[in-house]
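#structure-requests
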Amino acid sequence: MTPLGAAHPRLSVNDYLAGERDGELRHEYVAGNVYAMAGASRRHALMVTALTLLLGPEARKHDSQLFNNDMKVRIQQAGEESYYYPDLLLSCDPEDRETYFSTRPCLIIEVLSENTERIDRREKLYAYTGGLPSLQEYLLIAQDHRQLDLYRRTTDGWQHESYVEGSIHLQCLDMDLFLDDIYYDAERA
């Protein structure tokens, strides 16, 4: 993400949302600051597509809504508002029906890139796990090698699990997700 720069004053939430509706480029909003979104690589796009195809049927079975790339998540934390565009977002709450953003996702997935990994692993991890009481799982997926990092809410707080083979169980959808299925197309790109 690239900040718009010091010459730009803090933007109001309403101005940000209006700009996102009418603009051609996507931006994330963090406490009044706006950051342009970078384009995705072929591997990244193939992995997001694979995940959409894998999770989509299960989301429908659970009467949940799955979004990829273009649905924002709103976070209110420490008196500030932030809006991010996760790679995939699953909402299972029938009350979570804002037109342009989600407020109660149960699963968020980010496919890591060299430019976003630090933000996804730190800033977004903190924002998602601390600012979204509905969130049950946050999944980070490396695109240049096989590795999944799953952060899962437990009664004792957040638990981290890392996987390099086999499958993981997503509790939100009560399904197993196999690494072979996630990486199949990307490893042939």
